[in-house]
Structure prediction request, 1453 residues.
Amino acid sequence: MTAHMTVEEQQRATHRPPEPGTSVSVFAHPETFSSVTQQITSIVLTRPTPLFWYCTFGVGAAGVILFLISITWLLYRGLGIFGISIPVAWGYMITNFVWWIGIGHAGTLISAILLLLNQSWRNSINRFAEAMTIFAVICAGMFPLFHLGRPWIFYWILPYPNTMTIQPQFRSPLVWDVFAVSTYFTVSVLFWYLGMIPDLASLRDRARTRLAYGFYAVISLGWRGASRHWRWHESASLLLAGLATPLVLSVHTVVSFDFTIAILPGWHSTIFPPYFVAGAIYSGFAMVLILALPIRSVYHLENIITERHLNNCAKLMLATGLILAYTYVIEPFTAWYSGDVFEMAMVHNRAFGPEAWTFWTTMTCNVFIPQLLWFRWVRINPKPLFCVSCVVLYGMWMERFMIIITALHKDYLPSAWTNFEATRWDNFVILGSIGLFVTCFMLFVRFLPMISIFELHQLLPFSGADAAGGPEK
Amino acid sequence: MPKNFVPLSALGRHAGQRLWRTAEEYAGISAAGDDECDSEMAPLNEVSRRRFLELAAASFAIAGVTGCTRQPTERIMPYVNPPENLIPGRPQFYATAVPVAGLAQGVIVESHMGRPTKVEGNPAHPASLGATSVHSQASVLDLYDPDRVQAISHLNELQSWDDFREAMAIALAPIQAKQGSGLHILTGAVTSPTLGAQLQSVQKALHNAKWYQYEPAGSHSAQSAAKIVFGRPLNTIYRFDCADVILALDADFLACGEPSTRYANDFAARRVRGDRLDMNRLYMVESTLTATGGKADHRLPLRYADIESFTRNVAVSLGALPGTAQGASANSAFLRAVTQDLLAHKSASIVIPGIHQSPTVHALTHAINHALGNLESTVVFTNPLEVASVDQVASIRELAAALNSGAVGLLLILGGNPVYDAPADLGFPALLRRAKTSVHVSPISDETSDWCAWQVPESHFLETWGDACAFDGTVSILQPLIDPLYDSRSQIEVLDVILGPPGRRAYDIVRAYWQAHSGATDFEAWWRKSVCDGLVTGSALPEIKPSLNANWTQSLRAPQPAQDLEIVFRPDVYLFDGRFANNTWLQELPQPMTKLTWDNAVYLSPATAKRLGIGAQQLVCLNYRGRSVEGSAWILPGQPDNSVTVHLGWGHTRSGRAGNGAGFNAYQIRTSDAMGAGSGLTLTNLGSKFQLATTQMEQDMEGRTIVISAGVDQYRSDPDFVKKQTETPHQGESLYPQWYYTGHSWGMSIDLTRCVNCNACVVACQAENNIPVVGKEQVLNHRAMHWLRIDAYYEGDLNNPRAHYQPVPCMQCENAPCELVCPVQATNHSVDGLNDMVYNRCIGTRYCSNNCPYKVRRFNFLLFQDWETESIKLQRNPDVSVRSRGVMEKCTYCVQRIREAEIYAQVNDTGLLDGTIQTACQQACPTRAIIFGDINQRGSQVAALKAEKLNYALYGDLNTRPRTTYLAELRNPNPELKEV
Prediction:
């Protein structure tokens, strides 16, 4: 191997040549190293940017502007611009937070847990799923911040030496949240970036303009594809995967503590951690599919993101959805079994009270409609799958909204009861955050390798990678 | 001991520290007072350190307040302790009285550096006994109302006081030539001896001058009833502390108007005593659900017209009226039970009519009380409080006729607002144009000011000297605590212009009157004592023993058949006749039963609403005798069918920013022949909704153990019934170690039997703790900021529910759920057990509120505090921080008062006696329902109450271990009568 070889050439040199006719089922068609690399790098470097990209980016950017306007108005006027009140002191903002954090989970699950479980098919989708995680956590992190009455002193929640000699109150789940989410974000970014380095080097090598070359050269950190590089890369990846794996479970567990630690009926429940984690993965896979399906078709990646991927994601959705359905059944049961009047009143109010529409929307979106995924036709056909995913994503938002609103608006003392009514700013902020997410994601698609090239290479039959290409069972 | 010794306990919360000890010290008051008053003349080059601090503090105060807080130049008397050295930061207390519609409540006003900030009751005053009404509490805000008229104007052009005097001289010249013919003066009910004497001397000097009196929410029936029964107008005083059985006929005597503070006190004193087994019994027959009705042991909703026939039947059954019982109520169990109960408690019962009830009902109650032997025991009479008692409705009619005839040369309106509140059939606004010159003296440029040539700003009672009578005739001399903020004058000063030059100040006029009338040998001492005490000792009117006219029954109106739909006009509990309409505290104070704010409503019974097809909060048009007004409907449980109640005092078009457009003006359809109620109303559903803002949307307890209530018989047979209904986890059942209190351990006990839902505590809390008002829109968004609220729950039959009241401040839980979820330790437990809230540390996650089972925490969602209006800033209590946006706030047990008392006790090495510290709500409470103190202190009142068997913690089973606990509500239903 010489230093003048491109990364791809090195990679090819270390492996056997392709044997015609032995395609693996991850890909739809027989692929070669260069065909894969070419296909993915060309999206960034050579192919004209499709109209779809401009449209989506435009919509996203409009959302960002809406988001900025909303936040400016929020900081100027105060939290009263939202529909929150006493007793419903949390509303859309915390719903958005939990929802976005949950969405991130599928990315980590795919990149870490499926990696450790040798689920090689994940290699086609892990990169953009990880990107999705990061952008979702960015969106999520903003909500608790701007949801503070005085966000400019948010840092008081962090333990740091200060002249007031006060530390955060470690009994509060909100402090745990800060640690959980910041750890999650840090590990996710590291994992994502580390995984991208070999592919960034591929982009550097294929860059046609000085600007692109310089950009990718800097961010690929001098990756040369040396076997030492690969060795370190491999162990770092595994290490981070090991670190990220517990995070898949812990982050949403901690987020669920925000509710379970409280004494409110409807929040104070031990089932919340698994319930929240299952919900997070559920919504995360829905988001993966919502992103994958249009991109797959626009960038003609059907050969890489195959029906098998769709099928697997849909199956995972179905599985987590069923776990969720189980907890929906268990909740009223425990309320009834406890004999606690407040719990029973809450369950009744949730299903039949003034905010019952949230409950029935949740049930419809999260339990009833996703049963369509039992049909293979739905699982492998992009259009119905896209629709079901959208429904699930909306249902998961509604579920968090339901948990927050129905517990708060009627709790212990009837004299304090009220209803929640969202304002236009509530809606602007959630739409704006979706815009921010879309914008970030579109920039990612345009400027970074959205599918992991080197991991796809491992799947090629001649790659020699052990894990690669096990036939689908 | 000097003879004007005031008992220690009578001095409010600053008892220990404000009391003078020796006669010398007492005498020192005047010397120090001189110093204080002459300070402007003190040479500035001899500035001592202390003097410098005084001046600096004063100049800061002035700089901050645009030069408004000068001390009055006349000598005013600090309530007890003189400003020997005015210590910046330490408040001073002065006695004065709050006059409302001619009735005064004695108060002690807290002054910070020359700014009156808070009104407390005067323990020595009969109408207060240390407590206050909502009006007294809120009156301090009126002083700083930014919408007050600030200068004299003539046809909207600014004028000077000299211009006014000149103009009056010119206007009076032709009038004086004709012995006053053409001079017409309209006042409210005048009980002020000085003002009365002035008016009488005007009439003496100019005997053709006319003086009219009109109070829109006055007791017009009482006068005519007294004339019917006793042949002369009389003032009736009820002694509820001596009454075992009370029958109230549409009388909201516990919560509405003066002297409800005193009556509530007396009522509670008789309701709860000794072992609590000997309770009085209250029967209520009423045309709309009131706070008093909710407190009743038995309540009968009856239409206004039917109450008259019910009263007749009671009178007949008791032998006070010849004839036989007639009508629907004739054979009712209620009537039988009431009459039997009344008969069983002769001379220890009271039958009280509502002030808006008909003269017939009033006359009949006199006869009933007479037949029961209550006169001279529980019902006593005095001469009228008014200097000249007139039929006020006739009086305003006469004025209208005089204006109509064009005979009015100069019309002087002292304080009223006839354009807004005069009977609609008199055609008032247009009539005012017929007066050659008209002068309106009022604090606010209101509807009447618009129609008058001259507008003279009226001084607030805290700005001027004056005098007024309490319900029993006790005279108070009003002393100012601050020089007028604007170029305003008191009614006395304006009237003095009519009497001629030289236009003295109120101080001279009031003093001159009392110099002539006090009858004291040493006037100076008398004056000092009277001003200092806040009342003239022994000035209560003597009781008189009138005898019944022989043929009084002949003057009674024949029974009126009840017609289809009737309308009842009641004064508003808070805005009264409309004079408090621009007071934002009162606008936002939740109405006792409906918890409505910022609006009045058309009250309908559920059945009537259904029959007429009117839904809640639907806009309806009230058509009544050819006039109409639009209002939003409210379906009120316990409202009698086919009866519609509206409250007066709302719907101003020109009363300032708060009052304008809030509610609808029921005066627009109230006519002079039916001031209390009338039939022939039709309601039209306008089909649109008009949202009403209530602070309590759910008034059903949902079967939860919230207010524990029982009949006294149940308590007798099962004293532990409260324990059986509640469950308290063992102490120490917590993840965290228990804290043991070695020093103070503050706690509160709220007696639900005593609470009458008058809401004085809520306003007191607002005034003491700088609590902002949020406005109707924010109340609709459920963001009202009251730290203390009174929950009202209904129970039982929708058509005649039982009501329960529960004041809910912060419970100061020992295991506070709010504390452990705050990420920044902004809410913590203090060593003496308080659940402290550190505003400066709060970042506003609102998690604490979510986790509070009592929902007593309040969040400043928008910038609710008014940082802009200069005058409002003057009202704020400097001991309490003014919270900004994005911060959680809540009841602190008035921690500023606790710390102040602790510091005082430490500095002076005195212990903290039980009762030294009173929270603002406790101090205002007329029934002593709220008791605060040290639970650890042996023999403290709060510890004793918490040891009672009725004591329980709200949701104690949640293991929050609240420091605020309740005493279960006891009622005394008649065993003869099943629940109505």
Chain A touches chain B through 52 residues (CB under 8 Å). Confidence is low (pLDDT under 50) at residues 15-24, 465-473 of chain A. The CA atoms of residues 138 and 185 of chain A lie 8 Å apart. The two ends of chain A are 38 Å apart (CA to CA).
